[in-house]
Each structure stands twice: as C-alpha cells, then as structure tokens.
Amino acid sequence: MHASSCFQINGQFIKLGPRHAGRIVTVVVIEDTHFRILHGEDELAVRPRKNPGLITRLYVKGMGTKRDCQGSPDGKPSKNS
C-alpha cells in the first residue's frame, strides 16, 4: 500500500488510514458487492464495490513490491534483477 495509505482497485480509490500505511495487503472480492482488505489474517476493512465490472488486470506499484512479488524462497532478488 502507498505511504498515504490509499490504493486503487478496479478504478476505485480505497483509503485505510495512516496506521496501515506501507503494509502489504490482500484484497478479496465478496460476492461481487464488497472488497475485504486483509493484512495477514487480520481484517482491516470491508468496503462496498462501486464498479461491479470484472477485474481483468493486476498491477502492483509501491515501495518494495518488485522484490516482494518476486517469490524467491530466500526472499533475495535474483541476479537478473
């Protein structure tokens, strides 16, 4: 999540508050009507969806996302990065 604790999903901006700034969150769609935002197993928020259309692309941007999304078992960047 951005340092301002605001992120965008499916064209909708969601703000969680400064205490959640910089966290890596998971967004789950609940029955096409709501977004559930999780940090680990903790539920941070549930927000209604304003755009019920399909989510067709995933683009992650933010501090540390390139390394964090890499998926290497030891958490280190590859030599090709």
From TrEMBL:
Domain of life from the UniProt record: Bacteria
Put simply, this protein is called Uncharacterized protein
